[in-house]
Amino acid sequence: MSVDDKLKITRLLDELGVHYVEGGWPGSNPKDAEYFDRVRALRLDRVRIAAFGSTCRVGSSPEDDANIQALLDAETPVVTVVGKSSVLHVREVLRTTPEENLRMIQQSLAYLKAQGREVIFDGEHFFDGYKADPEYAESTLRGAVDAGADTVVLCDTNGGSMPWEIETITRDIRRLLPEVNLGIHAHNDGGVAAANSLAAVRAGVTQVQGTINGYGERCGNADLCTLIAGLELKMGMVVLPPGRLSQLTRLARTVAAITNQRLGRQTPYVGRSAFTHKAGMHVAAMRRDSESYQHLDPALVGNRARVVVSELSGRGNLQSKVEELGIDDLDHSELPEVVQRVKELEHQGFSFEGAEASVEMLLHRARTDYRPPFEMLDFMVVAEQRKGQGVFAQAMIKVRIGDEVFHSAADGNGPVNALDRALRKALMPVYPHLDGFDLADYKVQILNGEHGTGATTRVMVDMQNATRRWTTVGASANIIEASWIALADAVEYGLSTCGAH
Amino acid sequence: MSVDDKLKITRLLDELGVHYVEGGWPGSNPKDAEYFDRVRALRLDRVRIAAFGSTCRVGSSPEDDANIQALLDAETPVVTVVGKSSVLHVREVLRTTPEENLRMIQQSLAYLKAQGREVIFDGEHFFDGYKADPEYAESTLRGAVDAGADTVVLCDTNGGSMPWEIETITRDIRRLLPEVNLGIHAHNDGGVAAANSLAAVRAGVTQVQGTINGYGERCGNADLCTLIAGLELKMGMVVLPPGRLSQLTRLARTVAAITNQRLGRQTPYVGRSAFTHKAGMHVAAMRRDSESYQHLDPALVGNRARVVVSELSGRGNLQSKVEELGIDDLDHSELPEVVQRVKELEHQGFSFEGAEASVEMLLHRARTDYRPPFEMLDFMVVAEQRKGQGVFAQAMIKVRIGDEVFHSAADGNGPVNALDRALRKALMPVYPHLDGFDLADYKVQILNGEHGTGATTRVMVDMQNATRRWTTVGASANIIEASWIALADAVEYGLSTCGAH
Fold first, then answer.
1. At what angle do helices B98-114 and B66-73 cross, to 10 degrees?
2. B170, exposed or middle or buried, with CB in 10 Å at 0-12, 13-18, 19+?
3. Closest CA to A209 of A191, A228, A190, A192
4. A interface mutation test: which of B351, B444, B456 has the most A CBs within 10 A?
5. Are the beta carbons of B291 and B282 closer than 8 angstroms?
6. Which of chain B's ends, N or C, has fewer CB atoms near its CB within 10 Å?
7. Which residue does chain B place closest to A298, by CA atoms?
8. pTM of the prediction?
């Protein structure tokens, strides 16, 4: 992530209403140091910025430790200091004595407290350490508390603990240190990071660490979206300021876009498919009682229910889709034909799950009064590389609008870009508001992988204007044709439904 | 999935050693009926095949119910029958009385038992039903048991229950029905499907339902891979026959390939990144103690540890990579230059996380004695569509092998396929074993989405021969060039490292 990206996400997290953002490790790279310089200029409402670092090194004192000094130089109100809570790691990784590790923790925290910082202590490998040597693991926490730590965080660094272990051990610590703010830091290596975090909260923890969408090493950190929704909706706790929970889905998707990560469709609460219904039986039940196959109202987290139209679904799903879309002027006797068309196209490699704009276009085209804004006649794309001269791509395209034929050509930095530009060039004189449409995402999937590059290619295109975002699909053995189909569908959808505003 | 795909997966699940495979709903579509016809011909070792269906309909008797008859016609040793355990759903969705629902459950199960089937009863919406009306929910289970059900499954159909609820309610039922085999069926809507399933096992359940990789509607079902590994490695239970657990990773990836679904890299236990280490600090620690940042030995589940080389990693990671790959004859003074090259390429849009073959090629190319098997000179690709005549793609390519220049041309059903074919045509006379290399997967990611089709394109190529699979990366604003780079790297890697066998 660039520093700009990190600042953008910081602002989003503040708007959501989280309490802390750990912005980076100022001692580890110059980008993080720049972030802390620039984040001070942001006008943040609620969030407190924390800089992350480790205790001073073996044998060094905090005053002389570059890492600790970098933490101070970050000039954040909060510092998070990680130290080892497992005697095994002290011996094997730090290669020092348990006593020296305790000294490093205590002196580092005491020094940072003396500089006026709020100090969060992350006890690395705490649960593993506690299972092997509970007394030593406890002593690291006590040392941190004695040195003035404001919060002491129990870390399941390797993510291997199970919820019942987390709950039992956290209750032990809660009893031992009744006055201390406790935190939990869970990883998903056992597939139970969310459950572990919630179990710790049940056992008395008040700070929950995690990342948006669970980004993190190996199997990821605990997913804050799942946790925030779980804490508020399943445990009745107040985490965010009133009314903010419904920003959750948008936040998750925006952070995914900024970090250029795929947000899994099936991600709990915020995924695109989290409230999507496909089985005919489920859809039929939903038509009777909207709560029958969803655990809560998706609007609570800013998501929405969707009905999926696919090969296996019948008229019922398409009927629900027509209602969902509010296409009032469609003759319902046309539906069986649309179902048939969906089946044929899915057989060719299209997939309408998620490509709702393409489904909507199939429905619109079934209306007798539908007039397509343009008709594609021909295209040709050339991509070429000659040693030493770089790569060239260009496209020619011929479309009909009404009775007129437009023939255009454009360069591009790639063949799909050249096609996109040639298409826009042909259509813009008639549809100038096309200028406001951006291609926001473009995905390619290879079907029947065993055929290698000879396999069918499925392309999904996300297009957006200032207010909406829509997805279309194309499929062909030829990636250029598949891209063309999805691109043209996306443009046609935009021109047909978004109007000239 | 095709019937062939389902049969293939059935065989794989049998080899893994699961106890039951629910093969489909014979009453719902002809493909499922065909599956049951053909699965009888498979020689299965351990797995028992179950057909899935619902109870007879409101007002009908099992003898006259098409759905129940289809279950029998499937001729499986086991049938799974779903019935409603929530009085709300009985009233709102079935629109009948609680008594009629009990009759439907009891008569359906008794009838199927009388036909000699092992009967599993899935209590749909059991947990939600129990929270609202525990007596009625219990009565549906008792009805099923009285009618002869062999196993009674508690379903969290909407996936909204939390582990502590699941554990408490399951313990209640365990006490009420002490002699009955209980099962759990969890969904991931709250992000805790795995934890819910494991909690139920702790409360006395002996059958765990789920799907490989968690495939399923909305947020998916409980992931059997996570559960099998968790039950065996975290709870010390015996689930699979001895020695089978190490097949788990291969199984997960094979099923993903067959179903053409992406297996998330971060999937617990079996994902490609599940044991991948990136942070320099973690890698340094791993070099001291391999267990310091992983919760178990990845070999237990057939996975492996990997070190990731990326922009942010320094010499230490690359050093680990060199050792992991066993590149003995590399002059280590070359490493800083390779690190520099990695940084430059990542700046251009390459990503070496996961593209290990491309990293290995960078290292090989740093060896003074490395001789590339071929050198690319020029390429040109044309893709064209004329109304009514279909789509055409062709490529020309010029490569140098030793002192000789080979110029070839090929058609393809897409531009990348045409390139692939032209490249093979040029290289095959000199490297005939190239014939055994297949392009197994091909992924495209758009970076900086805000630039639409003008953005940088990153292509990842998976190539395989009979024994290995490797991944390479290419990036460019031009998708054809990005594809070319990844493709050529994959071919060069295969020719350089796989030998002529």
1. 30
2. buried
3. A228
4. B444
5. no
6. C
7. B189
8. 0.76
Q: How far is B233 from chain A (nearest CA, A)?
A: 10
Bridge partners of B68, per DSSP, are none
For residues A183 and A206, give the distance between their C-alpha atoms in angstroms, rounded to a whole number.
6
Pick from A62-66, A280-284, A292-296, B475-479: least confident = A280-284
Half-sphere exposure of B414 (CA within 13 A, CB side): 25
Put simply, the answer to whether A391 touches B274 (Cβ < 8 Å) is no
Question: Nearest Cβ partner of B386 from A378, A414, A421?
Answer: A378
Distance in angstroms (rounded) separating the CA atoms of residues A486 and A15: 35
- Dihedral, CA of residue A47, residue A52, residue A55 and residue A58, to nearest 10: 180
* Residue B330, min C-alpha distance to chain A (Å): 28
CB contact under 8 A, A295 and B269: no
Q: How many CB atoms lie within 10 A of CB B388?
A: 7
Facing residue for B441 by CB, picked from A189, A387, A446: A446
A 10 A CB-CB count for A103 gives 18
A481 and B163 within 8 Å at the Cβ level: the answer is: no
pLDDT in tens, A189-245: 999 999 999 999 999 999 999 999 999 999 999 999 999 999 999 999 999 999 999
Sign of dihedral through CA atoms A191, A197, A199, A203?
Answer: positive
Q: How confident is the model at residue B247 (pLDDT cuts 50, 70, 90)?
A: very high
Gap from B33 CA to chain A (nearest CA, Å): 15
Residues in B touching A301 (Cβ below 8 Å)? none
Structure tokens at A469: 């975002």
Query: What integer pLDDT is reported at residue A311 of this predicted model?
Result: 55
Residue B435 buriedness (CB in 10 A; 0-12 / 13-18 / 19+): exposed
Residue A105 and residue A162 in contact, taking contact as beta carbons nearer than 8 Å? no
Nearest chain B Cα distance for residue A145, angstroms: 25
Angle between helices A3-16 and A248-259 (to 10 degrees): 170
Asked whether the predicted pLDDT for residue A53 surpasses 60, the reply is yes
Q: Kindly indicate the confidence band of residue B501, based on its pLDDT and cuts at 50, 70 and 90.
A: very low
**Angstrom distance (rounded) from CA B352 to CA B310:** 6
Residue A182, beta-bridge partner list: A152
CA dihedral A483, A489, A495, A498 (to 10 degrees): -100
Task: Please state, in angstroms and rounded to a whole number, the distance separating the CA atoms of residues A75 and A34.
Answer: 12
* Model-level ipTM above the cut of 0.85: no
Closest CA to A191 of B197, B278, B216, B260: B197
Ordered DSSP codes for A17-34? T-SEEE---TTT-HHHHH
B383 neighbourhood in chain A, CB within 8 Å? 380-381, 415, 478, 480-481
CA distance A140 to A128: 13
Cα–Cα distance measured from residue A83 to residue A53, given in angstroms and rounded to the nearest whole number: 9
Phi-psi region of A243 (alpha: psi -120 to 50; beta: other; left: phi over 0): left
